[in-house]
UniProtKB/TrEMBL annotation:
Domain of life: Bacteria
Listed SUPFAM superfamilies: alpha/beta-Hydrolases
Protein name: Xaa-Pro dipeptidyl-peptidase-like domain-containing protein
Coiled-coil annotated residue ranges, if any: none
Organism field: Kouleothrix aurantiaca
Amino acid sequence: MPLQPDGLTFVISPEVDRTRVTYKNRYGITIAADLYTAKDLDKSGQHPALIIGPSHGGVKEQMPGVWANQLAQRGYVSLAFDPSYKGDSGGEPRFVSSPEIFMEDFSAGVDFLGTLDYVSRDRIGLVGICGSGGFGLGAARMDTRIKAVVTASMYDIGENYRNGWQHSWSDADRRAEMDRLAEQRWADLDAGTVTYDPIFPEEVPPAEVQLDPVTSEFFDYYVKSNDRGYHPHSQGGHIAVSHLGYMGYGGLRYLEDISPRPVLMIVGDQAFSRWFTEDAMEA
């Protein structure tokens, strides 16, 4: 669907109000979010609420907004946010990727929702889409104010950066990657700049270019020429040395700390990322 005049990648329901809000996380970074509520919501009462996080590199106007729009129609106060360093949220330099800060962004959303008179503090949950699924599980481990967790096509960014796709890296592979990133950090320091991972192209490569299934699916949604989920704030790239922060990050360890709070993990039977959810279920 083409980008809408209101900046969304979908059409908002006429039964839903969308309000732009900002608040700070505990690192002092300003988080930009969209608050979705049903137009007929009785604000004299107390209602359940959800914080909805985007894919790794995505923004609130994409999948989080789609979910928030639907959930608001079902009575949930729904908060779709841009993570720190992304979209309309603050943080410099842009496009840092940090597991600790991305988990904190969920807790900051709990803080904000808890200030609303019509939100029940005892009924706040989260939805983590793709990369935010892993960060959301990590946030719920530590923040018991989060009463329920939903992940959709969860992607464990830390596992992928530490051990490779489907655990394909050896210890030697990981050490080589750490050495490469360490040298990149020196290079960035000497150049006085930062280096970014490749970003999504504006055009899908021609058919004769053979793309792996993961890249092909990402391009189908994010690339501008497809007009499906493209948003100018969602460029896909991150500061390259951010990967080092994931080498020691154990986001899906100690998931038992979430119990007895409920967790719902949704994944398609053909999803290339299915193995992340299966790993989490076995953790």
